[in-house]
Amino acid sequence: MKAAKRTKLEANGWKIGSADEFLNLSPEESVYIELKLSLSKSLKQRRSKENLSQVEFAKLVKTSQSRVAKMEAGDPSVSIDLLVKSLIALGASPKDLANAIS
Amino acid sequence: MKAAKRTKLEANGWKIGSADEFLNLSPEESVYIELKLSLSKSLKQRRSKENLSQVEFAKLVKTSQSRVAKMEAGDPSVSIDLLVKSLIALGASPKDLANAIS
DNA sequence: TGCATATATGTCATATATGACATATGATCT
DNA sequence: AGATCATATGTCATATATGACATATATGCA
């Protein structure tokens, strides 16, 4: 539950330094989580820019509002696959994705 | 089985134009598959550069040789998550990943 | 030829991600 | 206060990804 806990903290604004400051994450875990958070953030930005509510967006990508909320929170239960597919559905190109994570 | 079929073709060098030339993939599907293929390719490159066999690499990331082969083939049964985790295990940074897909 | 070593492919039991639901929290109104 | 809308959180049945195994297909070398 380490990663899960930290993700929560991050999402709620508890982040102070970067990544592995808080719990004892391996560098690999840190990179992975940072990546997911980058995508989450990008997703939220894009959805907001499109003036879509989570409910509307959920309908668009055929999922539920609750899952959208979890995507944007970087919840451990959501895969990078889902984040990427959702971003693509919002029109993101490979370059957009590259920018989001770099 | 559309995407699966096409991935096979691509991986075997049948690719002529780009992405959606072959089967009737939606633009979103195309982007998703291209992304996976980029990561697959990058993974194979990195592993080769490290002079690791699939068996050795499999041990390193705690999976099996067969799964490694599937990762590198862009098999539909492998997730972006797994590809990303594997790349990170080989030392790839977020920037490296960004470069790989852009 | 036979014998390694490397990679590919098919299948399957189990682990994990998924959508959906209920419900909670929060913000903004009248 | 209550009402409405947006977002968050917890849980669960089912779908999908996973590692592992067997086996196939190279490729090189004695």
Automatic annotation (TrEMBL), chains A, B:
GO molecular function per UniProt: DNA binding
Residue span(s) of domain HTH cro/C1-type: 43-97
Ranges in a coiled coil: none
Domain of life: Bacteria
PROSITE patterns membership: HTH_CROC1 (PS50943)
Gene3D superfamilies from the UniProt entry: lambda repressor-like DNA-binding domains
InterPro entries: Cro/C1-type_HTH, Lambda_DNA-bd_dom_sf
Name of this protein: Transcriptional regulator
Species annotation: SAR86 cluster bacterium
Origin organism lineage: Bacteria, Pseudomonadati, Pseudomonadota, Gammaproteobacteria, SAR86 cluster
